[in-house]
Amino acid sequence: MPILAEAIHWKIHGAKVVPGDQLDIKTCGAPSVERTAAAINLPRVGAQKIWAGTVTIGPNGKTDPHHHGGLECVIYIVRGRARIRWGEKLEYSAEAGPGDFIFVPPYVPHQEINVASDQPLECVLVRSDHEEVAVSLDIEPVERPETVRWGDPILRQP
Asked: Is 55:38 a contact under the CB 8 Å cutoff?
């Protein structure tokens, strides 16, 4: 059933801009993770199917191993170089830089690592629900993970 435009107060129920200096700052359990900030969630803007925010990981820093339950997650690298490890023993690894996206399916154990020793890693995070689900895991990672290169299943590789 279509919604009639005159029945909705678009000023209140329309687009919302959350200024970057007004993000909801939360701290993460890992000491090297400087901060995470929620920009888009249920309490702030009424989002019911998405969560978005930022994370900054200090030089040589890393998150604790974790997963995000049944949520799909996207990490967009704004600045710096990230290594993501994943798997039951974090046995797989890939790197991403500015402009790259990382997709993490539901329940996948993973860890984000800043590979730089002289600059922070800055990322935008998006999750497929308004919940801020992060389940910490007690994982002893393998010493040398296998590097995985992504191949696009749609576009032909050069």
From this structure: no
Q: What is the pLDDT of residues 42-66, one digit of tens each?
A: 888 889 999 999 999 999 999 999 9
- Nearest-CA neighbor of 94 among 104, 83, 103? 83
Q: Which domains does the chain have, with CATH numbers?
A: 22-147 (2.60.120.10)
Count CB atoms within 10 A of the CB of residue 13. Answer: 10
CA dihedral 7, 12, 13, 17 (to 10 degrees): 150
pLDDT at 1 over 50: no
CA distance 82 to 105: 18
For residues 113 and 120, what is the distance between their CA atoms, to the nearest angstrom?
Answer: 11
| Assigned token pair, 3 | 């919604």
